[in-house]
Amino acid sequence: MLLRKFKREALKLAKGLELIDFSFGLPYTYVLVKGEKGRALGVAMTLPEEIQRYENLIEEPSLEEFIKMADSLNIVERTLALAAINAVSQYHINLSNADWIDATELLSDDIEKIAVIGNMPPIVKALRGRNFELYIFERNPKLWDKETLSDSLEYWLLPEMDAVIASATCIVNGTVDMIAERAKNAKIVLLTGPTGQALPELFKGIGITHIASMKVVDIERAIEKLKLGCFRGFSKESRKYTIAVS
User: Fold this and answer.
1) How far apart are the C-alpha atoms of 159 and 180, rounded to whole Å?
2) Is residue 234 part of a domain?
3) Which of 60, 191, 217, 244 is 20 to 30 A removed from 154 (C-alpha atoms)?
4) Order of strands across the sheet with 113-117?
5) 114-140: string of b/e by CB count within 10 Å (b at 16+)?
6) CA distances (Å), 96 to each of 85, 100, 117, 214, in order?
7) pLDDT value at position 231?
C-alpha cells in the first residue's frame, strides 16, 4: 500500500524538521515545516464529501504524529498526514530534473485513449482540443456532467487506456494503488495537482510514471490565501513542475 510506504519513508526524512504551522481546512489542508535549509509548505486537497464524524486523539500535534496517521481509515487523519508528508517531501525535493510544464504537454499524438480520473475542467478542455478519445471519471456526484463516468467503471476500463491522468487526491482517498495496477498497460500514468507534492522516488515500483505538482515559492502569501479559502488561491505563489518517476 502506497500510503504505508509514504509513512515509513517520511518518518525517516522528518528527522531534524520542526512543525511550524498546520490547518485542516477547505479547500486545502496544509502543513508548514522548518529545518536548517529553511521552510517548506505541503498541501493536500480536503475531500468534504468523505468527511465523517471525527474526534481528535492527538493531544500534542507534531510532525511525526501527523505522518503516523497516513494509513488511518479516517479521511481527516489521512489528509493531515499527506499534507505533512508533502511538506517533508518539498523540503527535500530536488527539481533539477523537472520540466516546468503542464501535465498535458507530456502526451504525444500517438496516444489515442486517455482516462482522466477526477473531473478537472482545465485538463479536460486542453485534451479535447487535441481530439483524444477521453474517458472522464469522477467520484463526487456534484462534479458530474453529461460526459462524466462513475469512478466505479475505472476497474473495468483502465486496462484499455494508452494514458491515465489522475488527480493526486487518489492518494488521499486510497485508490491510487488500484489505479496504478489497473492502468499497467498505459504508456503514461501521471498524478497531477498540488496534492501530489510527495517525492517522486516514493512512487517507485507501483506503476506511476510521472508527477505533475507545484512548488510553493511565496509561503506567507500562499498560507494567507489558503486561510481565506481560495480554491486556486496559491497558484500564483507557486511554480508548476512535471517530473518523471525514475
Assistant:
1) 10
2) no
3) 244
4) 148-150, 133-138, 113-117, 163-167, 188-192, 210-216, 238-244
5) bbbbbbbeebbebbeeeebebbbbbbe
6) 21, 10, 28, 14
7) 67
Q: Is the distance from CB of 171 to CB of 195 less than 8 angstroms?
A: yes
End-to-end CA separation in angstroms for the chain? 19
Contact of 184 with 8, CB cutoff 8 Å: no
The pTM score is 0.93
Q: Is position 168 within any domain?
A: yes
Report the CATH number at residue 111: 3.40.50.11590
Query: Which range of residues forms the domain containing residue 58?
Result: 2-92
Placement of cell 504551522 in the chain: 21
Top pLDDT among 162 and 236 is at 162
To the nearest 10°, report the CA torsion of 72, 42, 225, 193: -80
- Residue 201: pLDDT over 90: yes
**Residue 133 sits in the same domain as residue 183:** yes
Residue 72's Cβ-count burial label (10 Å; 0-12, 13-18, 19+) is: middle
Closest among 170, 173, 172, 174 to 189, alpha carbons compared: 170
Cβ atoms of 67 and 174 within 8 Å: the answer is: no
Query: Do residues 29 and 43 make contact, with C-beta atoms less than 8 angstroms apart?
Result: yes
For the chain, how big is the Rg over CA atoms in Å?
17
pLDDT digits (tens, 9 = 90+) for 164-189: 999 999 999 999 999 999 999 999 99
Residue 199 within any structural domain of the chain: yes
